[in-house]
C-alpha cells in the first residue's frame, strides 16, 4: 500500500506538475454599459513606444483577448497567451457604429472607453467602474498588483489633461501643459516601478520639451538601461531619444573622438579656403548664378515642428480637421491652431495654397 501511494505521488508530480504551474491571467470586473457601446471588451497589446501615438493606437493586429460584456456590465478575460515579462496593454470598448476592432479612443465625462494596464501571464486584476459615473470606465478602481495601482494614479494625472484643448486662451493652455509636464516628470522620478515611470515619460510632450528637459530624458534612459535592460521598450525609448537628437554614449576611447573632431575641423578649414579661392578667382561666374525665387521642400519643412509636419501630410491627403483630430488623438481646436501656424510659416492662407505650394516645389 505504501509503495502504491509512492508511485501515485511521483506520477502526479511528473505528469501533473506542468498543468499546475502553467500561468493563467484573469482580468475581471464591471464597466458602465449602455446601448451606445458594443457588448464586447477588448484587450490589446502595446508592442512599441517609439512615439506617443503607439501608446494610444489600436488595431486588430494588436488584440490578444476578447470577452462578452454581460447586461450588468460584468466581464472576465482569461487565458495563458501573454508573455512572462510585464508589458503594456489597453482594455477598451467599441462604440456601436464602429466596425469590429476599429475604434477611436475617447476621453471625457461620458465617453471614457479605455484604460492602460501592465500585465504578464499570471496577472490577476479586478477593475470596477463607479456606478454613479456615466462613461464605461468612469472613476474606475483597480484591485491587484502595485504596478497597476500606480498606473491608476498616473491616469488621474494624464486623462484630465485632454481638457487642455477646450481652453480658448493660448496662455491658459500653455500654463496647463507646462504643469502637466512637471507633474509627469515628478511622478516618473518618485514612482518605484520603472515600467510605470516609463508610461509617465511616454505621456510627456517630447516635441516641445525635449530641448529644455534634455537631461531629464537622458537620465531616465540610463535608469531604463539599469532597471529594464532586456525590455524591448528600452530599445524603443533609445530610438526615440535618437530621433530627437540624442547620441548614446559610445564605448570607444576618448582619443578616437578627439581624432574625429580634429579631422572634421581640418576638413572645414580646407573646405572654407577652397571656397574662398574659388570665389576670388571666379567672380564673373558667381555673379551670373541665378537666384532661386522659391524655397525647396526641405527648407519649408525645416520651418515646421514635428507635429506640424504630420498634420501637413494629412492635409495633403485631403483629410478634414475632424479626421486629423481623430487620427492623432487631439482636439479639433488643436488641429486648427497647428494649421494656422502652418499657414503663417509657409506664407499661405488656405489648404489649396498649401497643397499647390508643395506641389510646385
Q: What is the averaged pLDDT score?
A: 80
- The CATH topology of the largest domain: Immunoglobulin-like
**Main β sheet profile:** 4 strands, mixed
Q: Assign a percent range to the helix content.
A: 40-55%
Strand content: 5-15%
In brief, what are we looking at here?
The protein is α+β, with helices and mostly antiparallel strands and 361 residues long.
Layout of SSEs?
Elements: H1 2-21, E1 25-30, E2 37-45, H2 52-56, E3 63-68, E4 74-79, E5 87-95, E6 114-119, E7 124-128, E8 141-143, H3 146-158, H4 170-190, H5 194-202, H6 206-209, H7 214-227, H8 232-243, H9 254-281, H10 283-287, H11 297-302, H12 306-316, H13 321-328, H14 332-346, H15 351-360
Parallel strand pairs: 1-7
Antiparallel strand pairs: 1-4, 2-3, 2-5, 5-6, 7-8
Structure commentary:
The protein has 15 helices and eight strands. It has 361 residues and is α+β, with helices and mostly antiparallel strands. It has four domains: 22-144, Sandwich (Immunoglobulin-like), CATH 2.60.40; 164-243, no CATH class; 254-287; 297-360, Winged helix-like DNA-binding domain superfamily/Winged helix DNA-binding domain (Arc Repressor Mutant, subunit A). Helix 12 (306-316) packs across helix 14 and helix 13 (321-328) crosses helix 14 (332-346). The longest helix is centred in the last third of the chain and has 28 residues, at 254-281. It is globular, with a radius of gyration of 27 Å. The N and C termini lie far apart (92 Å). The relative contact order is 0.08. Residues 16-21, 247-252 and 284-294 have low confidence and may be disordered.
Amino acid at each position: 500500500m505504501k509503495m502504491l501511494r509512492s508511485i501515485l505521488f511521483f506520477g502526479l508530480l511528473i505528469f501533473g506538475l506542468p498543468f499546475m504551474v502553467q500561468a493563467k491571467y484573469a482580468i475581471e470586473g464591471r464597466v458602465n454599459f449602455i446601448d451606445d457601446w458594443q457588448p464586447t471588451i477588448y484587450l490589446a497589446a502595446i508592442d512599441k513606444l517609439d512615439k506617443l501615438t503607439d501608446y494610444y493606437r489600436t488595431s486588430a493586429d494588436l488584440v490578444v483577448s476578447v470577452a462578452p460584456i454581460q447586461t450588468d456590465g460584468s466581464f472576465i478575460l482569461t487565458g495563458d497567451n501573454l508573455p512572462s515579462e510585464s508589458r503594456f496593454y489597453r482594455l477598451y470598448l467599441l462604440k456601436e457604429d464602429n466596425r469590429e476592432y476599429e475604434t477611436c479612443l475617447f476621453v471625457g465625462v461620458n465617453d471614457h472607453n479605455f484604460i492602460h494596464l501592465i500585465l504578464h501571464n499570471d496577472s490577476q486584476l479586478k477593475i470596477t467602474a463607479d456606478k454613479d459615473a456615466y462613461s464605461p470606465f468612469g472613476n474606475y478602481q483597480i484591485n491587484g498588483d502595485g504596478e497597476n495601482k500606480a498606473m491608476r494614479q498616473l491616469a488621474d494625472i494624464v486623462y484630465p489633461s485632454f481638457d487642455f484643448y477646450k481652453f480658448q486662451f493660448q496662455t491658459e493652455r500653455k500654463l496647463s501643459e507646462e504643469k502637466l509636464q512637471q507633474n509627469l516628470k515628478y511622478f516618473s522620478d518618485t514612482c518605484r516601478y520603472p515600467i510605470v515611470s516609463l508610461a509617465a515619460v511616454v505621456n510627456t510632450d517630447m516635441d516641445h520639451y525635449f530641448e529644455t528637459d534634455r537631461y531629464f530624458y537622458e537620465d531616465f534612459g540610463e535608469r531604463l538601461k539599469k532597471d529594464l535592460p532586456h525590455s524591448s521598450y528600452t530599445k524603443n525609448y533609445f530610438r526615440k531619444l535618437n530621433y530627437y537628437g540624442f547620441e548614446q554614449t559610445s564605448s570607444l576611447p576618448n582619443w578616437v573622438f578627439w581624432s574625429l573632431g580634429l579631422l572634421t575641423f581640418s576638413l572645414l578649414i580646407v573646405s572654407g579656403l577652397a571656397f574662398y579661392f574659388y570665389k576670388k578667382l571666379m567672380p564673373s561666374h558667381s555673379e551670373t548664378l541665378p537666384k532661386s525665387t522659391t524655397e525647396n521642400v526641405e527648407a519649408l519643412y525645416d520651418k515646421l515642428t514635428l507635429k506640424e509636419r504630420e498634420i501637413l501630410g494629412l492635409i495633403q491627403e485631403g483629410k478634414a480637421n475632424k479626421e486629423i483630430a481623430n487620427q492623432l488623438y487631439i482636439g479639433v481646436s488643436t488641429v486648427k491652431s497647428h494649421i494656422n501656424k502652418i499657414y503663417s510659416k509657409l506664407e499661405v492662407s488656405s489648404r489649396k495654397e498649401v497643397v499647390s505650394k508643395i506641389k510646385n516645389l
